[in-house]
Amino acid sequence: MQKPMYILGIESSCDDTSASVTCNSKILSNVIANQEIHSKYGGVVPELASRAHQQNIVPVVQQAIAQANITKEELSAIAFTKGPGLMGSLLVGTSFAKSLALGLQIPLIAVNHMQAHILAHFIQEEDNKIPPFPFLCLTISGGHTQIVKVANYFEMEILGETIDDAVGEAFDKSAKILGLPYPGGPLIDKYAKLGNPKAFTFTKPKVGDLDFSFSGLKTAILYFVQKQQRINPNFIKEKLNDICASIQFTIVEILMDKLKNAVKKTGIKHIAIAGGVSANSEIRNRLQLAEKHFNWTTYIPKFEYTTDNAAMIAITGYLKYLDGNYSDVSVTAKARLKVTE
């Protein structure tokens, strides 16, 4: 039997403070403290985020260790998010992880947040399908949109990415145009379920086969809404469900078109999704349909592993621990970091 290895994962890249404990590749706890304060500003305020992390990190880590039913002395290593993310937020997690690892005299493991989103697929749970190598992963979040070819745990290649805005930003900014509160992406998903996706047509951006662009789409949505409101001031109120359904349909079509191109180019038919936008119900539905239509095998993470969470940091830490891939205490947080770094 495999000796139990307990890894504490710490995630503080944006506005959620999270801590998780894994026993080998199983999650024992995954505690997340959300920061409500940002909703009234219509987006994350970096200074407020880092202050909230300072308040949350000790209770969150304590809770994660208590829920895992172990003591901190039983931990084998501490994994933390090195980047990418908001610098102030990252520094809170980095400093805390370094201090705790030094105090307990155990290895410190720096984790790339984007790799962790992908490697969340390797969390072992009863109903969790684990993708075989190589597979393609569509990583979609507020800050990233890319198609990654995953050859093994730490060998990844970006096949295509956004040349401007990320898909999560396109959802949130579209929601803002419609007067919906932040974060608006989940609200677009909610109203889209009640609307007609073919009610309004938006032009898809013309970029490379595997690259994405969403800034033009956002502008097109803004001009469309402004024009319709000049004709009918109640347009948004009367047609909200149809507008949301049409926006969501267009965005998901763009994502699916690029995925089809990536499958054609690589011949790989194992397709995973990762990142906050992978919680979107339409992208999940379309991927499940693609299994039937295109003979793909799709891997869709549980909702709790889609948004920023420490379980994905802990599982990545465990895989790095097995590899002996530790970090020195001189390691620094990095606001910008590619998935391949």
UniProtKB/TrEMBL annotation:
GO BP terms, alphabetized: tRNA threonylcarbamoyladenosine modification
Q: Where in the cell is it found?
A: Cytoplasm
This entry carries the following GO cellular component terms, namely:
cytoplasm
| Gcp-like domain ranges (all copies) | 26-314
Query: What is the recorded name of this protein?
Result: tRNA N6-adenosine threonylcarbamoyltransferase
Q: Transmembrane residues, as ranges?
A: none
Family under the similarity heading: Belongs to the KAE1 / TsaD family.
Keyword annotations for this protein, in alphabetical order, are: Acyltransferase, Cytoplasm, Iron, Metal-binding, Transferase, tRNA processing
Which amino acid positions bind substrate, per UniProt?
139-143, 172, 185, 189, 280
Q: HAMAP family under this entry?
A: TsaD
**What does the UniProt cofactor note say?**
Binds 1 Fe(2+) ion per subunit.
Annotated EC: 2.3.1.234
Q: Which Pfam families match?
A: TsaD (PF00814)
Q: Give the originating organism.
A: Polaribacter aquimarinus
